[in-house]
Design goal:
single chain, 143 residues, alpha+beta, Chemotaxis protein chec, 6-stranded antiparallel beta sheet, two-stranded antiparallel sheet, 40% helix, globular
Length: 143
């Protein structure tokens, strides 16, 4: 399971280091793609394959399904994790997420999310204000 929040930097060559505590789930490769809320999602290969199988079941005739699948898959990039635990972020994904020098790497169950530090701070503070409401709604789902 991938958990935790880590402050890192992106270097001049667009590389980010995956925290050692999170690397064990990945081996030497992962899949980096657009995430929701203008972050990036980094999936271990096994998790990515499971997601792709679920995406295959979405109805092709539904516009929202087509759009979601297109954006997730067309923007996906297989990334190699080097000996120092770093991955190279393609320019188009760096631009999508608006990554500046300081980034946040967050372990979120089955994936890593990569955020620009300022976007993460704004997102987190907004979500924290409604955390109780969110918990109440999820209570109906048994969570």
């Amino acid at each position: 399971m991938l958990i935790g929040e880590y402050i890192h930097t992106i270097d001049n060559k667009k590389r980010i280091a995956i925290p050692a505590k999170l690397r064990g789930e990945f081996g030497s490769k992962g899949v980096l793609t657009r995430g929701l809320d203008n972050c990036l999602f980094l999936y271990p290969q096994k998790e990515w394959e499971g997601l792709v199988e679920r995406l295959r079941t979405l109805p092709l005739g539904q516009e929202s399904s087509r759009g979601f699948v297109r954006l997730m898959l067309a923007s996906a990039s297989e990334v190699e994790i080097d000996n120092l635990g770093r991955i190279l972020v393609p320019e188009y994904l760096k631009d999508y997420a608006g990554l500046s020098k300081k980034i946040i790497i967050a372990g979120v169950l089955n994936r890593i999310e990569v955020w620009d530090e300022n976007k993460w701070i704004n997102y987190k503070s907004g979500t924290e204000k409604t955390f109780g409401d969110i918990a109440e709604k999820l209570g109906g789902l048994g969570i």
